[in-house]
Amino acid sequence: MKDLHPSSLLAGLNDTDLEEETPVSNDFSTALGALILSLVFLLGVPGNLFIIWSILARTRQRSVTTILILNLACADGFLMALTIFFIIYLAKQTWIFGPVMCKGLFYLCNSNMYASIFLITLMSVHRLVAVVLPQRVSSMASRKIVRRVIFGMWVLVMVISLPSLVFRDLSTRVDDMNNTFMVCMPNHTQPRRVRFQYALETVAGFILPYAVIITSYVLILRRLRQTKFRRKVRSEKLILAIVVMFGIFWLPYHVINMIQVAAEWYPEHSLKKEMLDRISQSSRAVTSALAFISSCANPILYTFAGKSYIKRNGFAFMAKLFESTLDQIGNKKSRLMGKDNVLIRNVDSSSTPVSTGQNGK
């Protein structure tokens, strides 16, 4: 996955420019990148570990939304733990971990992107089912089915991330002072590989999932307007906030992806290609930084969402927040339907003696 790795925080380089400059060849940029990643590490690792602990140790009732949030925290927390390798890479300005780690670490970075958006998509689809088909939530959201869906999602993530594993290599570079250093960079020898990888990232990792998410929430809002149950529940607000947060961080990255794909359709050294490459190179660093920071943003979001629980519950506030995301819409609608059924049965039972009495007369 090009330029999502921490070295991309330093410079948005095209693959053809490696001989002139590498992401670890600028002292100021490497220092800035190391600083950003250190802050991400300090916020992301403890934050996501706290979410995992809150769900596993303190949450007594786990909704489907909570299980999906647990998987999201595991993915983000694991990615944040890997930043220590990238900080060392920037500090030494050379890759010291070998070719296997070069491919493997960036493959895991790419996997995190897909896992995050797929998990958020599953949250949105589940909320749609809870609103539109509340009577089926219990049967469709059983633990066995949820585990199978999540397992299938992780398998898909591992498969769809393979291009980032294939199109990345470790190579040797020599600077102006004849110092030799190693760089771990994408290796796209043909334009079609660039188009394939980045188009796949944007279509499968952003456009299609967000189309499902937007469709789900349009149907949810339409359904709520048709019913008397219009009260906004906490789980709806929380999931919608996660969706918006992810979009804010990732949209700029995917826009640059598409600019780079468009550049590869033009002939080499053409004015349009040079212009698009220049835009991509100048913007890649900022958009990649935003994308990478997104993995440590959710714990902060959950803290703001659960601030009303902090005084009452202390460190257990996040567990209380997740317990409050139980399928409220489905449960409340089910209770209303249950009350209606009881009322119908009572009316039927009360009308039976009357009918019998009339016949007796």
From TrEMBL:
Instruction: Give the record's GO biological process terms.
Output: inflammatory response; phospholipase C-activating G protein-coupled receptor signaling pathway; positive regulation of cytosolic calcium ion concentration
Q: Residue limits of the G-protein coupled receptors family 1 profile domain?
A: 47-302
Which UniProt key words apply to this protein? Cell membrane, Disulfide bond, G-protein coupled receptor, Glycoprotein, Membrane, Phosphoprotein, Receptor, Transducer, Transmembrane, Transmembrane helix
Pfam families found in the cross-reference section: 7tm_1
What SUPFAM superfamilies would the database entry show?
Family A G protein-coupled receptor-like
Q: Name one GO molecular function term.
A: complement receptor activity
Asked if the record carries the keyword Disulfide bond, the reply is yes
What InterPro entries does this protein map onto? Answer: ATII_rcpt, Formyl_rcpt-rel, GPCR_Rhodpsn, GPCR_Rhodpsn_7TM
Question: Which spans are transmembrane here?
Answer: 31-56, 68-91, 111-133, 145-167, 198-220, 240-263, 283-305
**Keyword Glycoprotein, does the record have it?**
yes
> Its membrane topology, per UniProt?
Multi-pass membrane protein
Gene Ontology cellular component list: cell surface; plasma membrane
Q: State the signal peptide span.
A: none
Q: Where in the cell is it found?
A: Cell membrane
Q: What PANTHER family does UniProt report for this protein, alphabetically?
A: CHEMOTACTIC RECEPTOR (PTHR24225), G-PROTEIN COUPLED RECEPTORS FAMILY 1 PROFILE DOMAIN-CONTAINING PROTEIN-RELATED (PTHR24225:SF72)
Q: Which family does it belong to?
A: Belongs to the chemokine-like receptor (CMKLR) family.
Kindly provide the name given to this protein in its UniProt entry. Answer: Leukotriene B4 receptor 2b
The record lists the organism as: Mastacembelus armatus
